[in-house]
UniProtKB/TrEMBL annotation:
Protein name: Uncharacterized protein
Entry superkingdom: Eukaryota
This protein's record includes keyword Coiled coil: yes
Annotated coiled-coil segments of the chain: 20-54
Keyword terms: Coiled coil
């Protein structure tokens, strides 16, 4: 059985090649997983920014629509006042 030397601080460890190979495989798998997670995080960040922009535009549009409707209501009330009969006293 072949052995590798591994250093951790001032301590020397002997590892079998099989354990070393498993560690390399795990390392490569973890690197791929990290890449996948980073890509997903970037995608989610972009999606979040788009959603924040869209909700801001929607809110602004709703606020302007409320102003427009308030203006229409005010205008209609003024028009209605012209046609109302004065109350009898």
């Amino acid at each position: 059985m072949k052995c590798n030397l591994a250093y951790k601080g001032n301590t020397v460890y002997f590892e079998s090649m099989e354990k070393s190979e498993i560690t390399r495989e795990d390392y490569e798998k973890l690197k791929l997983e990290i890449s996948r997670i980073e890509a997903e995080r970037a995608r989610l960040q972009t999606e979040k920014e788009i959603l924040l922009y869209n909700i801001s535009v929607l809110f602004r549009t709703a606020r302007e629509e409320i102003k427009r409707k308030d203006s229409t209501i005010t205008s209609l009330r003024k028009s209605l006042e012209k046609y109302e009969r004065p109350s009898c006293q």
